[in-house]
Amino acid sequence: MKVKTQISGDVAKRLRPGPAKPLFDGPNPSVASKKQKIAVIGMGYVGIPAAVLFADAGYSVIGIQRSSKRSGWKIDRLNEGRCPIGGKEPELPELLEKVVSNQKFHVTEDISAVKEADFILIDVQTPTDEKHIPQYESLKEVCHQIGKYLTPRKIVVIESTVAPGTTEYLVKPILEEESGLKAGLPGGFGLCFSYERVMVGRLIHNIREYPKIVGGIDSESTNLTIELYRSIVKGGVYGTDPMTAEVSKTVENAYRDVQIAFANEVALLCEALGTDVYEVRKFVNGLPNDPSTPGANPVRNMHLPGAGVGGHCLPKDSWLLMHGYDKYAILKSEYPFSVMSDARYLNDWMPMHMANLLESALNEGKRDIKNSMVCVLGYSFLENSDDSRNTPTITFLKELDKRGAKYKIHDPYVKDTEEGYQIEPNLDVAIKNCDALVVMVKHDAYNNITFEKLKKLLHTKIIIDGRNLFDPQKSTASGFIFRGVGKGKKL
Length: 491
What we know:
Elements: E1 3-5, H1 9-15, E2 37-41, H2 47-56, E3 60-64, H3 73-79, H4 92-101, E4 105-108, E5 119-122, H5 137-147, E6 155-158, H6 166-179, E7 190-193, H7 203-209, E8 212-216, H8 219-229, E9 237-240, H9 242-273, H10 277-284, H11 314-328, E10 331-333, H12 339-364, E11 373-377, H13 392-403, E12 406-410, H14 427-431, E13 436-439, H15 451-457, E14 462-465, H16 472-477, E15 481-484
Parallel strand pairs: 2-3, 2-5, 3-4, 5-6, 6-7, 8-9, 11-12, 11-13, 13-14, 14-15
Antiparallel strand pairs: 1-10, 7-8
Helix pairs in contact: 2-4, 5-6, 9-11, 9-12, 12-13
């Protein structure tokens, strides 16, 4: 493939990476000294489990949380040993209570507490805006703040997901300017990018069991940070440079997003062809794992289709990857990249498809979507969680507003929403007198919904299933008008 230089020679020279860093995967070094102190900035889905695991390993850990209207309440709750993360989160509540009781972990809003720390982990949010541009206000603010307290041999570790190039060309200059030090050990401060691989409902498990990648700006920063993480990570800790680590993180999530988009596109095809995408998926994934010829292994892992993609990572990480390419690439490809961006657009469109399925079913039931009452099951982005960041349910609700429908929302874990949507806590009340039931999230609490109950509560017997909760044949046999993602009507 032909490439062409898109930036001037002097800029390219400045951005060109140095010698490749070695892979640090030799014998385990001695366990990091438990006398070391760790500061974790940002008490969210990444910062809390990381802090708790380090504290449980014997380190003295201080969590730092801004006392904002949105998140300041976490400080007191964490210091009481009570987990602020709702839903099913195995091990975390018990470990948190233990480390607070043992006085190994406490939380403050005072950023100057980093003066006591040998390692400073940054776990703040790094969202993108409507134009898919990274919004680094929190990251930059924290870097300016902690830079004032850096002294030689302190190590800063960025765990927040960022666009490739961010550690080297945004974080490092701020820290150097504020501290008056040069990045790099032994004479200055250490700096690494080491991305998180957490998943709601598996926070402790993923940090402890999955491999950890450490991208340091120098070998000593990398090795010391590897030694630290090896005290809590069982899956292996590997070293590289910051750019490689940043690309790896964004590619990891872009890969999953593209796979989900593929499943969604197959689902749309199945609807059009009158077949069931889940039966197709079963047959496709039935190919065996045959390691006899690795290059031609037939195994497949088609992902699940659904009503949309949410969460903090997948909706933005493809855009972060492309932002890093646009901003820092030394050579630009003549090929117009499209696979990842097209996948993003399709996954963002799926809530609109849910609205189309709903309107089609209402029309079949002689109902106009305008002024129809719809019961929406699930507000979070993931089952059995209270995490509603970038939930596709919001996109669906906005589309209902545009089409003139009314709605009630039920979620067993979400109590309040920042967007101002009202959550009905009682499932029966949410369903009663509605013209359609729409499944946006497959919470376990919905597994026991029976057709008999729905017949008694619904005003119009319509089911729109975005998460494969109901059987289409049983639904229609029970007298319901049914639509589902990937559930085509057989001729």
